[in-house]
Amino acid sequence: MHAIVIEDKQLHWTEVPEPEAGEGEVVIDVAAAGVNRADLLQREGNYPPPPGAPAYPGLECSGVISALGPGVDGHHVGERVCALLAGGGYAERVAVPAGQLLPVPAGLSVVEAAALPEAACTVWSNVVSHDKLRAGETFLVHGGGSGIGTFAVQLGRALGATVLVTARAAKHERLRALGADLTIDYSEQDFVRAVHDATDGRGADVVLDIIGAKYLSRNVEALAPNGRISVIGFQGGTRAELDLGALMTKRGTISSTSLRARPPAEKARIVTGVRDQVWPLVSAGLVKPVIHTTFPLAQAAEAQRVMESSDHLGKIVLLR
Ligand SMILES: NC(=O)c1ccc[n+]([C@@H]2O[C@H](COP(=O)([O-])OP(=O)(O)OC[C@H]3O[C@@H](n4cnc5c(N)ncnc54)[C@H](OP(=O)(O)O)[C@@H]3O)[C@@H](O)[C@H]2O)c1
Q1: Same domain, 229 and 133
Q2: Closest CA to 307 of 38, 115, 9, 10
Q3: What is the percentage of the chain residues whose pLDDT exceeds 70?
Q4: Residue 29 domain boundaries
Q5: Model pLDDT, residue 118
Q6: Signed CA dihedral, 107, 108, 110, 116: sign only
Q7: What is the CATH number of the domain that holds 269?
Q8: pTM
Q9: Quick one: average pLDDT of 312-317?
Q10: Which tens digits make up the pLDDT trace of 50-63?
Q11: Nearest Cα residue to atom 2 of ligand 1
């Protein structure tokens, strides 16, 4: 089969060995694969795959099961699925633990389904499972136009939260159409002030942050009493100073997780939560995949250039 292989920080469509379904795994014949910011880091050598994961990039895919490994129950060859991967989505076939499979949600094409697993699992595990965002609360999403952000905006709205987003102005109209109550141009506006203005000075109950160090103190300033901050990205660096007094006064919580590094059993727990709590919202049309553009798998390098420009809104998807 063919896969995208990284060599000297370049992506090459290369012939590679077929994957085999190990104990508890299935092989997926890939129809489509989502592109994620982390894939760019992996290409640059800054985000190696965890031990045992395929060497090729690609954290999510959709397709059809082509083989079952020993000990797999409840799935069959020919079944249409999408999956959360530790790597290897940029390939014609990939082996994945059965616990990381999700059905293609009712009403979606197999290609659309490829745009969902990574964002759904990341947002649900942080915002719903950990931060317990509730109806009536205020949810601040940084980078609302990202693949993660476009999903978070819709999920926040579907859960009954008031959704505030930061994004460049060119993305605001579409973010409001997706369910954002307030769009903040982070390049022109102070998001802390905008959040306080929008909440009568109370602040945001839950913050989903992809910027890291650069936003840490300001996220705490923007936080409501008993607020929760989930840091899931470091686009603004990893090292920052924090006034713990400011956090304590608000009885705030800061957490940070990486989905890819979690053990398979934890990923399976998250996938089950997504299937039970998020997929019904997707099937009901309340949360939709937002696909900016598609490229053939062999042109993954071009797809990553579009992502690097940050001019996209939502997901970029590779097609077999
Ligand atoms: N921890 C985890 O488990 C996990 C899992 C998945 C993703 N992530 C992280 O989530 C982030 C998004 O991933 P993705 O694949 O969805 O990326 P993406 O689509 O490439 O989006 C990146 C976004 O960052 C925004 N941005 C840049 N500077 C900003 C700033 N100062 N303030 C607010 N937004 C800013 C850009 O929007 P503008 O054009 O508006 O600037 C762009 O939409 C990445 O940092 C990724 O590493 C983490």
Answers
A1: yes
A2: 38
A3: 100
A4: 2-116+260-319
A5: 98
A6: negative
A7: 3.90.180.10
A8: 0.98
A9: 98
A10: 998 999 999 999 99
A11: 258
CA nearest ligand 1 atom 42, residue: 146
pLDDT category at 80 given cuts 50, 70, 90 is very high
Between CA 210 and CA 195 the distance in angstroms is: 17
Which protein residue has the closest C-alpha to ligand 1 atom 48?
232
CB 53 within 8 A of CB 43: no
pLDDT tens, position by position, 269-291: 999 999 999 999 999 999 999 99
207 and 268 inside one domain: no
Residues 97 and 145 in one domain: no
Structurally, how many domains does the chain consist of? 2
Give SS3 for 32. Answer: strand
Same domain, 127 and 205: yes
Q: Which of 285, 305, 300 is nearest to 90 (CA)?
A: 300
**pLDDT, tens digit (0-9, with 9 covering 90-100), for 189-207:** 999 999 999 999 999 999 9
Tell me, using a 6 A CB cutoff, whether residue 168 lines ligand 1: yes
Domain boundary among 209, 229, 256: 256
Judge if 212 and 303 occupy the same domain. no
Res 75: pLDDT: 98
SS3 labels along 92-131: CEEEEEHHHEEECCCCCCHHHHCCCHHHHHHHHHHHHHHC
